[in-house]
Amino acid sequence: MKIKAYKIETSRPDDLNGLEQLIADGVLIPKDLLCIIGKTEGNGGRNDFTRDLAMHAYEDLFSRLLGISRQAVTDRIIFSLSGGCEGVVTPHIIAFTREGEIADEPCNRDGSKGLAVAIGYTREFAPQEIGRMAQIKETARVITQLMQELKLDSASDVHLIQMKGAIPSYTYEQGLSAARSGKPMRSDMVYSRGASALAAACAMQEIAIDDLDDEAICSDYTKYSSVASCSAKPGLKRTEVMLFANSRYAESDLTICSTVLNNMIDSPSIHALLREQAFDFEAQLSAADRSRIVGTFAKSEADPTNHINGKRHTMLTDDDISDTRYSRCVLSSVIASITGDTTIYVSTRAEHHGPSGGGTFSMILRK
User: Fold this and answer.
1) Which residues 6+ apart lie within 8 Å of 189 measured at CB?
2) What is the mean pLDDT of the chain?
3) CA angle 172, 178, 180 (to 5 degrees)
4) 180 pLDDT more than 90
5) 163: containing domain
6) Tally of domains within the chain
7) Distance of CA 350 to CAs 178, 256, 298, 310, 359, Å?
8) Which of the residues 4, 39, 113, 164 is marked catalytic?
9) CA 275 – CA 277 distance, rounded (Å)
10) Of 40-49, 105-114, 183-192, 218-227, highest mean pLDDT
11) Is 332 a catalytic residue?
């Protein structure tokens, strides 16, 4: 297996120019495409249609190039698009391709590891399963399967589990029946994200699945994943999973690393991670060091206690601007001030992603 990654800046949500040029030049082979992760410049809210616009363009392109239906495109390639490029964030996508399968023998005699990526899908969920243990168990099963496919030495080789959580549609009658049974529907983005993140924590053995129950989901925030990055999509019947790890059985000039942020201004944790990856800097990475960065991925949340490092913040009480927009703007600015790179994937709402008020943070780098 050899994973390649292509970072492409976009001028609008449906801008395919950079992607089409790589394809025309024979650099990116459409049949090898695994997934695309990117930021579009909408508001990131319920009325953000930039993701739909982008998806229409990608489905049309790959339907034509691969000779398959638009539905078949999304069955073959996972697209994880996050709206909201507040502040300094540059709209962009990162396209990941895979050449060959995971090797039978280690690729390097010195035991070094390369970036490995696997994608998978859960079974379809019933509406009443969302935000409950059924979603956690099935999602954890798929993540575990993907880890086994990549022949990882341990769970610590996993540094990013990117997911689009299921939120299947349900009728009014189904919702009413569920409410009468004492278990109302949890088919919303909050619970789907939370259950997906806890599934990652279980698969990574950060949490014992027997220590969880339905009531812990989006309630007990002492339980969390250190590598999950989950969104959710209304109408999606199954969860889409992308697992990024380092494997001895993958040949690549790329590697991935990660850490947990305690809050959205936790620059010391980012500094420490960069130094672990042999970056030597004082204030900001040099242009040469920046060239090593392929992708930066982070989850962010306005601390629900209304405090950061003991000081009060107003992100949750400001009625003029959504806390999600503040959150993306602040964290991306902190990251960019360190790396000097503004092509950052910051996704907000971080239920069970790192400690409450914090989030997960990953980087894909050239060795």
Assistant:
1) 165, 167, 231, 232, 234, 349
2) 96
3) 105
4) no
5) 114-244
6) 3
7) 27, 21, 10, 20, 6
8) 164
9) 5
10) 218-227
11) no
Residue 108 belongs to some domain of the structure? no
- The token pair that represents 253 in the structure block: 């000039």
Looking at residue 299, which CATH number applies to its domain? 3.30.1330.160
Residue 86's pLDDT is 95
DSSP SS3 for 204: coil
Is 231 tagged catalytic? yes
Residue 106 lies in a domain: no
At 345, is the pLDDT very low, low, confident or very high (cuts 50, 70, 90)? very high
String of DSSP letters for 3-39: EEEEEEE-SSTT--HHHHHHHHTTSS-GGGEEEEEEE
pLDDT category, 181, cuts 50, 70, 90?
confident
Tokens in use for 61?
A: 């392109």
Spatial CB neighbours of 226, under 8 Å, sequence gap ≥ 6 = 201, 204, 206, 258, 260, 354, 360
State which of 212, 244, 276 marks the end of a domain: 244
- Look up residue 23 and give its two tokens: 């394809």
- H or E stretch covering 234: strand 228-234
Please pick, among 80, 226, 229, 231, the residue that the annotation labels catalytic.
Answer: 231
* Cβ-based neighbour number of residue 197 at 10 Å: 32
Of 222, 244, 266, the one marking the end of a domain is 244
**Residues 228-270: tens digit of each pLDDT:** 999 999 999 999 999 999 999 999 999 999 999 999 999 999 9
Please state whether the predicted TM-score (pTM) of the whole model is above 0.85: yes
